[in-house]
Amino acid sequence: xxxxxxxxxxxxxxxxxxxxxxxxxxxxxxxxxxxxxxxxxxxxxxxxxxxxxxxxxxxxxxxxxxxxxxxxxxxxxxxxxxxxxxxxxxxxxxxxxxxxxxxxxxxxxxxxxxxxxxxxxxxxxxxxxxxxxxxxxxxxxxxxxxxxxxxxxxxxxxxxxxxxxxxxxxxxxxxxxxxxxxxxxxxxxxxxxxxxxxxxxxxxxxxxxxxxxxxxxxxxxxxxxxxxxxxxxxxxxxxxxxxxxxxxxxxxxxxxxxxxxxxxxxxxxxxxxxxxxxxxxxxxxxxxxxxxxxxxxxxxxxxxxxxxxxxxxxxxxxxxxxxxxxxxxxxxxxxxxxxxxxxxxxxxxxxxxxxxxxxxxxxxxxxxxxxxxxxxxxxxxxxxxxxxxxxxxxxxxxxxxxxxxxx
Length: 407
Ligand code: MLT
Fold this sequence. Notes:
alpha/beta; Aspartate Aminotransferase, domain 1; Aspartate Aminotransferase, domain 2; 2 domains
């Protein structure tokens, strides 16, 4: 008899962004509307930078010749990329990471979802609102209890609200693992170095693993905001960090990212000291054949002078979109947070309207797609998220339509 993983049966109907895409598709088809502007899922619109494109062309040419062909690559990622990451992303911030502690992958979504494979039973805490991948992957692994319509009974939620400045408080109950994402998806907010240091100190004192998603670090403009959790003393003992090239370099379709698991991160298990990076390596060797040679060559090119200049200019473009949209929303009397160190705006719905209702209003009246805050967790109710990854002309048009909104 075929048996399925029952945990999947507990999941709400569909993944948040798939659900929104289906609603948008139905709207377009039913009403034959062809001017919908999507500011929902954070898919980028600026093409991959020239430096990475050239490197990927060269990589394809290499693969086309017998003498330079590459088959299966190292599961942990090619040395050339891991060295570029250590030297380019960490050393300039005074953080010493060895290339052996870096694991290249096909993106932070896969890594933050798959990491549950190497963790045992334990209480998991998530910020609320939260990137749904952390929650759903724990639910799939049977670590989230039951879904009660708005939350999972087995997870500890750390509300991030306007009242606490969208900064999560340390959990008041014992937890074993906590997911932190800063700059935050969906709220677009950040933690200062002092705020993050409190989390590291607490994790060290309470034997907690921090899963730190810094996929949006390239958007940080405030010098008081750390780009990596490893800028904090002690973090090597308690944290895993995830990074992505998706939003930094237009790699949403190329797929490449990486995780850093320091050597110090170890637990006593099975009568011995087990390093988490050993377990992750074991997992990756079995279930993953590495990101493609082509995408890794493309990623390495981001660290060249040209690559850096080109990606920087794309990030500035997105940040200027965020500033433009924030201005337009503020002008119409809405309150918007985020957008200065992150590509997301977290916007209060008018008069406390439920977020899915505001989603419908925006879609029907303005043909605009946002992401309803409730989809990110109970504390997301009353907010919607807009991304800054669109083209500038879309924001100009979105602002024009928003001004005509009847709310
Ligand atoms: C988002 O819109 O939250 C992200 O683009 C989704 C993702 O990175 O998987």
